[in-house]
Amino acid sequence: MKNISSSRNSRFLILYAFMIVSIRFHTHAADVIQSVNSTSDSSSNWNTAIWGAGPSTPVSGSGDTYISDGSITSLLRTGNYTNAYFDNTLKLIHGATLINKSIYVHDADFILEDNSTLSAGDNGNTYLNSTSIYVAGGNSGTLRADSAGRNQTFKSIISGSGTLNTTGVDATSINYIDQTANTFSGLWTVSDSTLVSLSNHSLGTGSFYINSGGVLDIRNSDFSDVHTTSDLTIVSGGSFALNSGITSYFSTVNLDGTVLSAGTYTYSDLDAGQQAFFSDSDGTGSFVVIPEPSTLCLFLAGVLAAACLTGRKI
Questions:
Q1: What is the pLDDT of residue 239?
Q2: How does pLDDT run across 63-81, given as a tens digit for each residue?
Q3: Which of 39, 57, 90, 108 has its CA 20 to 30 A from that of 117?
């Protein structure tokens, strides 16, 4: 009897613990909307009482999603800290802007919609690898560097299949991407700024649209997959940096309406008009336009046939 009673008690305790966890999860899984704009002095930053109808301060690690809605409150700021922590999901919608006034950002999961923005608010901002950025297909977000050395480094895990717009004031405004685990498969656009890939796979498997004043700078073997489906489009006034010893692969390369044929290109292989879309560090950088699958198959079939004929002659 004691064993039966003990077993029942154990089952009861397990069920009770499960109910408590479930209640806590469902109690905290809520959407909390920003109700007070952050001020320019950051006294009403993202860790202060600017959330909800109350309003109140965010609850760290609550499981809630905090929403900054640009149609209600257009501005949100981190505090003027060395290290900023949020420890929650932050969803920016309807063009909302988060201005980062901290040197390091920790423990925040960002969801960007409706071209909402993560903006550099001071010199040398870094989003550490405990942060993430997600842009769903059909949606868009913006990473904005600024003037006077207000650049941003994203060690965040970036995912989704939407559009990420990188922008700034001019080519000296730099958004650095430095995360090997990124899976972003959408479209990168670059305008009035430089987008720099610092580590392999930083830019995921996405495609690129380089607007006037934009520079794409891949400093690693990020795009070395011969099976790539990534496209590169550069309009007049945009530029792709060819770096020393780096070869990048693209499914198509479009230079302001002119589509390059399949093949390998160095800067010297391009004519004067085409060279205007590229910069060259030392002549050893290159890019490859992958042949269409049907063309590649025909080429391989030809090589195989030639090998068979040669073998017969022998």
A1: 98
A2: 899 999 999 998 999 998 9
A3: 57
DSSP state of 268: G
Please identify which residue in the block is written with the tokens 């071209």: 115
Q: Quick one: pLDDT at residue 237?
A: 98
Q: What is the pLDDT of residue 41?
A: 82
Phi and psi at residue 42, to the nearest 5°: 65, 15
For residue 282, give the nearest of 238, 229, 242 by alpha carbon: 242
**Domain spans in the chain, listed from the N-terminal domain onward:** 2-222
- Predicted confidence (pLDDT) per residue in 224-254, tens digit: 888 899 999 999 999 999 999 999 999 999 9
Q: What is the pTM of this model?
A: 0.84
> Token digits for 213?
């004043």
pLDDT tens digits for range 260-272: 999 999 999 999 9
